[in-house]
């Protein structure tokens, strides 16, 4: 019985491959509004937000599995949120928004929270969250503009990818590199072990 990874993120696929975990993708259909799941509620703290969204992704994925009458299997979901103080920085909608996010992150430390949730075939759920701090050097405006033009910020929380060119400006991290990239491998392996032993 293979594991379903319910994620459109190529980073998550790559990170799960790194663990050697065989999986299949369980992607949302055109009838599903993946963006609506990620709407921020008024006054919601980043850590509460990332856990709520991950849980919602898991529920939507389990419903999808049933709807499609696919063979049963455990389902894994995650969500990554960049937080600058109380501010949640999601995926930028356009270049202007990407540049504004990057300018806000320049010369500052921020948090990256990634929540992971796993449901087994009996509907039991295991969940975990990894939080990291990322220190970003002061980046000249022209360099940020060129970074946006490279296209790398799009589809990424906080408008950057630590695994890409942006790494040139990350002076220090405390936490989990894989968590910042989208799937904390220590926590994910722990969840998979817990579910296998339960
Ligand atoms: C901070 C950061 C985020 N990211 C990416 C990981 C995620 O793909 C994305 C955060 O958006 P998410 O909403 O967590 O994930 P997603 O929409 O890409 O995929 P899905 O919901 O289907 O699982 O940002 C990086 O690739 N590198 C980084 O350094």
Automatic annotation (TrEMBL):
Xref: Gene3D superfamilies: 3.90.950.10
Main location: cytoplasm
Entry-linked SUPFAM superfamilies: ITPase-like
Positions annotated as active site in the UniProt record: 79
Site (Important for substrate specificity): 11, 80, 163
Top EC group: hydrolase
Reaction(s) this enzyme catalyzes, per UniProt: UTP + H2O = UMP + diphosphate + H(+); dTTP + H2O = dTMP + diphosphate + H(+)
Its EC number(s): 3.6.1.9
Gene Ontology biological-process entries: nucleotide metabolic process
InterPro entries, alphabetized: ITPase-like_fam, Maf-like
Keyword Hydrolase on entry: yes
Cofactor list: a divalent metal cation
Compartments, record wording: Cytoplasm
Pfam family of the protein (one): Maf
Keywords, ordered alphabetically: Cytoplasm, Hydrolase, Nucleotide metabolism
CC per GO annotation: cytoplasm
Listed GO MF terms: dTTP diphosphatase activity; UTP diphosphatase activity
Function summary: Nucleoside triphosphate pyrophosphatase that hydrolyzes dTTP and UTP. May have a dual role in cell division arrest and in preventing the incorporation of modified nucleotides into cellular nucleic acids.
Record family assignment: Belongs to the Maf family. YhdE subfamily.
Family annotation (HAMAP family): Maf
Name recorded for this polypeptide: dTTP/UTP pyrophosphatase
